[in-house]
Amino acid sequence: MLAPGNHKVTCLTRATSCNDRTTPGRAASFADASAPGRGAGTLARVDTLLARTADDAARAARELLGVVRRTPVERARWLADPLGVDVHLKCENLQRAGSFKIRGAYTRIFRLSDEERGRGVVAASAGNHAQGVALAASLLGVPATVFMPEGASLVKERATRGYGADVRFAGTSVDAAVDAALGYARSTGRVFVHPFDHPDVVAGQGSVGLELLEQVPGVSTVVVCLGGGGLLAGIAATVKQARPDVTVVGVQAEGAAAYPPSLWAGHPVPLETMSTMADGIAIGRPGDLPFSIISRYVDEVVTVSEDAISAALVRLLERNKLVCEPAGAVAVAALASGRLRPTGPVVATLSGGNIDPLLMLRVIRHGMVADGRYLAFMTAIRDRPGALAQLLARLADLGANVLDVVHERTRSSLAVDDVEVLVVLETRGRAHREEILRALAEQGYGVHQAVEPATAGGASGAGAP
Fold it and tell me: Quick check: pTM over 0.90?
């Protein structure tokens, strides 16, 4: 474990995630304990914050008894074998309302005074916090209004309404929705329930850390998804207070990674743009309170690609029979991609499972492409009866499953008696994919273009699982 103040930020795919201050996959130290402002007084204040947050999380855990589920921990042999350590999955995707967010939301609303509850609450979220607030408010008999960004998941919107909240849309990002919610709170007197930047919310999320310490008492590394930082800060506080030897790692999507540049700068730095399928952790600026804990007590922050996220979702579905949303799978993505080499036992959090079915279809397709499970190629064959059947028979002999075939007869480069075909296959993985391409070349097929199904224009349904 790194001592407080000696951290690593690892950008696993692009150096630009750390403002070009480290190379991909290389860890860089920051926040040296000897730097200005890092003296004994600062350490004492931070230690007090840590102890207070951990104690507050223990109180929140008692308040949450009978409200939230003690979610199970599942073993993941498919991760353990290549890593050489035991890997456990903390399944908050099986939590009430589909994510860990009910913990922080309920804690925050539960601790309001009667007068504050009477005024009602307002929140902003892309979906999971919205559902957590809506469910918590309904359990406590408190009126709730939730602002969501345009384009938020239909599943999450409907669930939020189903729990009784008044849903309104504002802007195209969570940050814009937060601004709208804050304005609504000022004009109506409602209490704003922040998704991550409040002591009660961090304390509620910290109850996850207390549970996983009890469920995997020998844990050595904890890997947690990271957006605004409420979950990671809460887990870091509870874990480090009880077991300072445990390594705590945060994981962000590389297209929405606000923490690496913020940690380098020593203060929260907002992102100018974000682009990721993991909407649940697409937060443009770290929370002040979570940042103050994470910057001192989280050992490493890493980023993962969209391919790694989608491949992790597919593996979780296939191997553990667990449905996750993209944000909920980033911790597993960091392990499955081979970028983290942790000491074990390892606990990886699955933070949420609220995924729109249409998005799931796209993500599964993307994940299977990333895992080498699809192959699309174009080749020319004679335009005569039996030529296509002969090609398909050879593909069948190679164990490939044909998903789609498209003919092209009008390309100017084709001979008069030739036809070009686009064939989309399902394969067993990258090695099988390369075997098919080699065999086709040996059998005289000019596979002059190999493309991914997602870019194979003209193939209706190409790549659909």
Answer: no
